[in-house]
Each structure stands twice: as C-alpha cells, then as structure tokens.
C-alpha cells in the first residue's frame, strides 16, 4: 500500500503532521493532526490539490486537529465539496458549513 508521511514543523510552535495513503489509484486517504494555521496550511493545500487534480476520491481525516485558524477554515470550506471530511467536530461543522 503506497503512502507518504510528512512531518512538518514550523516556527512559533506551529506543527502539523500529515499522512497520506493511496490504497488504490483512485483513492487518497489523508490524516492531518496538530495545528492547521497560516504557516502549515500550504502543505495541506498542496497535497489536497494534487489529489483533487488527479481526480482521486479523497478522505480527509481532520479529527486530529487541535486548532484551525480562519485561513484553515476557509480552505476546508473551499474543498468540502471535493473531499469527504472525516471526524469533523460539531464546532467545525458549524464554522465551515
């Protein structure tokens, strides 16, 4: 099962961990943990957009997020019709829907 594992650490205590598994050619399963903020957002954007561009079905597991900035919420709003958001908290559901 092909996968990529990204550990990304940024300044000012911003940290995100992104794990991607592709169980087949049409599916990408992405887990994201930590803080989704201005500094870490570009990494998740690139990974998601690459898989969206490839017309993959994307399962984005967000239940490991501790903090989501306004920029992060805006991005989740942008992609919510193109991916399946898994583990979305009730608070985030209200914020991005």
CATH superfamily heading: STAS domain
Shape: globular
What gap, in angstroms, lies between the N and C termini?
33 Å
Query: Helix share of residues?
Result: 25-40%
> How large is the share of residues in beta strands?
35-45%
* Oligomerization: single chain
Q: What's the architecture in CATH terms? A: 2-Layer Sandwich
Q: Mean pLDDT, rounded to whole units?
A: 88
The CATH C-level class name: Alpha Beta
CATH topology grouping: Transcription Regulator spoIIAA
Give the number of helices.
3
What is the ordering of alpha helices and beta strands?
EEEHEHEH
Structural class: alpha/beta
The major β-sheet equals: 5 strands, mixed
C-alpha-based Rg, rounded: 13 Å
Number of domains: 1
User: What is the total tally of β strands?
Assistant: 5
Model regions low in confidence, pLDDT < 50 over at least 5 residues: 7-12
Task: Please state how the strands of the largest beta sheet are arranged side by side.
Answer: 1-2-3-4-5
Chain-wise SSE layout:
Layout: E1 3-9, E2 15-24, E3 27-36, H1 38-53, E4 57-68, H2 70-79, E5 84-86, H3 90-96
Parallel strand pairs: 3-4, 4-5
Antiparallel strand pairs: 1-2, 2-3
């Amino acid at each position: 099962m092909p996968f990529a594992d990204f550990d990304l650490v940024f300044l000012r205590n911003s940290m995100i961990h992104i794990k991607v598994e592709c169980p087949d050619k049409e599916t990408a399963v992405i887990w994201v943990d930590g803080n989704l903020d201005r500094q870490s957002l570009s990494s998740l954007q690139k990974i998601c957009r690459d898989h969206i561009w490839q017309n993959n079905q994307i399962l984005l597991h967000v239940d490991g997020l501790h903090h989501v900035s306004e920029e992060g919420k805006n991005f989740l709003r942008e992609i919510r019709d193109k991916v399946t958001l898994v583990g979305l908290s009730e608070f985030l559901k209200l914020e991005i829907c």
